[in-house]
Amino acid sequence: MDEAERSLSEALQHTLYELRVHQTELAMQNEELRQAQLELDKQRKRYFDLYDLAPVGYCALSAQGLIREANQTAASMLGVPRSALTTKALSRFIVKSDQDVYYLFCKQLVASRQAQSCELRIVPRKGAAVWAKLTATVAAGEADDEMRIVLSDISVGKQAARALQQSEVQLDCILEATSDGILAIGEDGKVIRFNKRFEELWQIPPAVLDGGNDAALLKYVVGQLAQPEEFLATVQALYASDAERIDNIRFKDGRVFERFTAPLALESSVIGRIWSFRDITERERMARELDDVMQEQVAILNSGIVGIAKLRDRKFVWTNAAFARMMGYTQEELIDRATRLVHSSDEASQALAEAAYPVMQQGEIYRAEVEYRCKDGSALWAHVAGSLLEVGSLDSIWSFIDITQRKQMEDQIRQMAFFDVLTALPNRRLLLDRLGQAVQIAQRSSCYGALMFLDLDNFKPLNDAHGHAAGDLLLIEVARRLNQCVRGMDTVARIGGDEFVVLLGGLPSEQTDSADQAVKLAEKIRAALAEPYSLSVHNNADPIEHLCSASIGVVLFGKDHQSLDGLLKWADVAMYRSKEDGRNRVTFMVERRQQQRTDVAKQPLDPGSGPG
Predict the structure, then answer these.
(1) Angle between the 428-445 and 404-418 helix axes, to the nearest 10 degrees?
(2) Residue 303: phi, psi to the nearest 5?
(3) What is the pLDDT of residue 596?
(4) Do residue 244 and residue 313 come from a single domain?
(5) What is the tens place of the pLDDT at every residue in 139-148?
(6) Spatial separation of the C-alpha atoms in residues 485 and 481, rounded to whole Å
């Protein structure tokens, strides 16, 4: 073998060696690639496992909003198999009322190409709507942009927020419903919360409260207090401790507040202090009044002027001598007897019990003016005050002050205000009141009423000849005869001098029947008043014989009448017509809207207009 062949053989062997080395390297690279592929497949599987099993839903959407890809969580949230989601529009799963929210969300996402989020409700294919949070970004796809959306179920959070909101509303309602003023201060000295009642009680300007600074609030309120230094010292001591406290604070203007305070704690940490204020000014006043009454009762009991009685289950257990004298009994006669003994009837006794005991059971004093019946049958008015010796017990103590004389004076004053002193008939004031009631009744019932105006025809000559004493006797006798002619439900009034008015109510609903009844009664009155009078004046031995008649005007009223003065004037006009026609007669007048009567010979009808 020559040199050339040897060189070729070595070259071939070297080349073969290099090929084997290269082959080995390729095999090693292939193994590395295989291992890398296995690791890649493993990582891909792990990624898809994480993707599918993630607690949030992932969706990839086309620019048209169609689902290209979704993980298993998204499919579960939407209630559709994962394979069936492809090409479905995500908008079809969104509540109709939230579609605008989703539209604006997508629009902003595309326009800004920045991450966007929103909250809306989605409706699974089967099931109720749930709240979801959408977070999305835009990524460039192979053909167009792609929206990548994360769906998070926030229903639990929404429910918690709604429960918290309801709790806040309930708390606000409770705070505003209470009659106490409530103030909460945080550990930093800032106002956390207060109710409207607190603002009203302390009369604090809104600017001070809106500032939220307890120091400014404290400075404002101490200016109203009677003892500001003591108040400040107490507040500072309370803020330095975890103690509760209840006490009273007094104002310069006389008001009194009950104050309660306690630390505001969250778990085991104090985060502030709660203050409650209640206006007890009225309670304090009542307590003082009660104390005054008790002292007064002690004095009265010892004085013997006012009647005192102790009751047990509405029976007399003890009385003082003054009460027994008031009622005309001895003390022994009253003991163990029911209180019904001194009442005019069972109904009166029961009515007082039903009115008094509920009040006394509240720890209050019952006061009233009550009419009693004495042993001799006479009436006695007393101002009574009663209270239970102990709330819930059957024992009560009562005081009685005789006010019979005052009541009699009140009756006399009322008599003078509403009745004629001479004849004891109703006067003009009471007449107008009853006339107003009669007109209202006529309007409601469609029945008629009648008004008669009477003037005595021969009164002045009697006064001139025999004096006013004789005239007064005549007026008294006229009043008596008038009352004898009318029904108990009718009213006879004297409105001045020798003028009288008779008011008839409850006449028939037919105008003709009412007119007949009124005219017959007027004629009866005319005849009664025309009878001779025998008047016994004190300074005359023989009675005065006198003849006196009356001129009477009558007018009907029904549902269309409103003016009381108009009715009186119209009856007065009718009366003067009787005077003009010769006196001692009855003139019945009607308004033009009423049917005129033509069948009563002695009662001419006036064709003119009525009183309106």
Answers:
(1) 70
(2) -80, -30
(3) 35
(4) no
(5) 876 667 889 9
(6) 6
Whether residue 170 is contained in a domain is answered as no
For residues 38 and 84, membership in a common domain is answered with no
Each residue of 422-448: pLDDT tens digit?
Answer: 888 998 888 888 888 888 888 888 889
Q: Name the β-bridge partners of 438.
A: none
Number of other residues whose CB lies within 10 A of the CB of residue 429: 12
Same domain, 537 and 456: yes
Domain encompassing residue 467 = 419-589
Q: Give yes or no for a contact between 257 and 249, defined as CB atoms under 8 angstroms apart.
A: yes
Q: What is the pTM of this model?
A: 0.38
Q: Cα–Cα distance between 328 and 336 in angstroms, integer? A: 17
Domain count, the chain: 5
What span, in angstroms and rounded, lies between the C-alpha atoms of 436 and 430?
Answer: 10
Dump pLDDT digits (tens) for 496-525: 888 999 999 888 988 889 999 999 999 999
Q: Which residue carries 């559709």 as its tokens?
A: 80
CATH code where residue 184 lies: 3.30.450.20
Phi, psi for residue 446 in degrees, rounded to 5? 65, 15
**286 located within any domain:** no
Residue 187 lies inside a defined structural domain of this protein: yes
Q: What is the pLDDT of residues 316-368, one digit of tens each?
A: 999 888 899 889 999 899 999 999 999 989 999 999 999 999 999 998 999 99
Q: Is residue 269 part of a domain?
A: yes
Contact present, 517 and 457 (Cβ < 8 Å): no
Q: Which two tokens stand for residue 292?
A: 């005054």
Angle, helices 214-222/228-239, rounded to nearest 10 degrees? 150
b/e 270-280 (16+ beta carbons within 10 angstroms → b): eebbbbbbbbe
- 24 and 101 in a single domain? The answer is no
**C-alpha separations of 161 from 168, 175, 338 in Å:** 10, 21, 66
